[in-house]
Amino acid sequence: MLLVFSVCSVAIDAVFQNFVVRDDLSLDWGIRIGIGIFGFILLLLLILFGLVVQTVIYFVCKSYLNEDFAANSAMNAPQQKATAVQEQLPV
Predict the structure, then answer these.
(1) Which sequence ranges are marked TM in the entry (predicted)?
(2) Disulfide check for 16: which of 3, 26, 39, 61 has CB 3.0–4.6 Å away?
(3) What does the pLDDT look like over 1-48, one tens digit per residue?
(4) What whole-number distance in Å separates Cα of residue 86 and Cα of residue 79?
């Protein structure tokens, strides 16, 4: 998956470099700005999609290994710390 995301990122960067930065085709400013905005949106979507894929892979691996999800322990952490501090206080 990392290879696919890297190839897509390099392709978007190459299009941006050729059409917006270097302007090999002597395009109008409006077209260059449009291509730049389109490249930015594509890159943003690629990053967000990559984060979703990483999250899904994480949860699939956790469920495959029959590990408990950390959501319950994360929600109970402040209560557990408060209990531990109260136990250490002298009476």
Answers:
(1) 33-60
(2) 39
(3) 889 999 999 999 999 998 888 877 777 888 889 989 999 999 999 999
(4) 11
DSSP codes of every residue in 47-84: HHHHHHHHHHHHHHHHHHTTPPPTHHHHHHHHHHHHHH
Block residue for tokens 């190839």 = 7
The answer to whether the CB of 23 falls within 8 A of the CB of 32 is yes
42 contacts 4 by C-beta, under 8 angstroms: no
Amino acid identity at 87? E
Type of residue numbered 2: L
* Segments forming the whole domain that contains residue 42: 2-88
CB 24 within 8 A of CB 14: no
Tokens of 53: 């894929």
pTM surpassing 0.70? no
What size, in residues, is the chain?
A: 91
